[in-house]
Amino acid sequence: MNSVAGDVDVRIAALADRLSAAGDLTRPEWRRAIHQAPRHLFAPDRAWCVADGPGEGHAIDRAADPDTWWDGVYADAAVITQVRDGDGDPATGQGPWTSSLSAPGPVAAFLELLAPRDHDRVLEIGTGTGWTAALLTARLGPGRVTSVEVDEEVAKQAAANLAAAGFVPALVTGDGAEGAPEGAPYDRVHVTCGVTTVPYAWVEQTRPGGVLVLPWMPEFAGGHKTRLTVTGDGRAVGGFHGSVSYMMLRAQRGRGVPAPGDGTESGTRLDPRTVTGDSDGADVAIAGMLPDVLGVERTTVDGRYALVLADTAGTSTATCEHRPGAREHLVRQSGDRRLWDEVAAAYLRWVSWGSPGRERFGLTVGPEGQQVWRDDPANVLTAA
């Protein structure tokens, strides 16, 4: 074994140890897969590295600074490989991030949540660099993985990466929202991009008893690791397993929260930081009751916390601004709806249930759409 290969083995083992210590990697088959599909084979020579957690992003350049490049590739960090759908230099970190080599922690956590069996066939949505398709192929063997990528240039590079690494999953270039019906039915669906609405095609293309794992990223607040099981009546039912943030499926990219209008002013004793701070359950409940309300946290020009709201129809906006030491916090609402009032009512309704945690909620996806429920799929959340 030469020194370069030995150094790679040491880096892979150290990464696996860190993932194990964090609780993201517990199964020996995935540890073996990480060794069989070395991550550096899927990393570009120049990119932007972003830790999965606190920390500033930084450029990595294999030619100019190989040590930093290797450290970044084998850190628990996302490597941004594309910005502005290819119209920009990812190594600058500037512009909307549109494709990446995902951070190993979330990758391992989702693969363990997927839990494919030896005989399973897997549909992956979002090939990206090809690394997760390689990990799945290392785990399951040839002929069992189909991966779909919407971006032609990203798909070409993934195919080259996979071939160079010795893996040959079936690769499809197309809209991931449509799945890959020509290869259906699948036993598992592994999604590497965020979705607000789970495409029903994924359920249709999965066998009864099959599993889908995906980053569910509703309009309100953050995202959630989600595991759904397909039933015998054409639905998929399941729950949430922690927080996550992924780039969105291109077909579901949002327009973002617009600048709020002036509107009417009022006060509230409910601290907006409480509404978003009680995120382990409150965020899912609010998203379920108000699926068309976007909510993001902002800092005002004078450094104050604000919760900014808008509806997906574009008719209404609201802001609740924290006022330190004040008896009430400032609310501004404009448009057809009183969005702060709706969000506050949904939050207090969650409180009235005893502030149930995320594990008490679930998601059902069927031909008629999707629904969030509490404790039982029959107990569907609706607006107050």
TrEMBL record:
It is found in: Cytoplasm. One of its GO terms (molecular function) is methyltransferase activity. InterPro entries: PCMT (IPR000682), SAM-dependent_MTases_sf (IPR029063). The keyword Mitochondrion does not apply. Keywords: Cytoplasm, Methyltransferase, S-adenosyl-L-methionine, Transferase. It is an enzyme of class 2 (transferase). The keyword Transferase applies. Its main location: cytoplasm. GO terms for biological process: methylation. Its EC number is 2.1.1.77. SUPFAM superfamilies: S-adenosyl-L-methionine-dependent methyltransferases. Pfam families: PCMT (PF01135). Gene3D superfamilies: Vaccinia Virus protein VP39. Belongs to the methyltransferase superfamily. L-isoaspartyl/D-aspartyl protein methyltransferase family. PANTHER family: PROTEIN-L-ISOASPARTATE O-METHYLTRANSFERASE (PTHR11579), PROTEIN-L-ISOASPARTATE(D-ASPARTATE) O-METHYLTRANSFERASE (PTHR11579:SF0). This is Protein-L-isoaspartate O-methyltransferase.
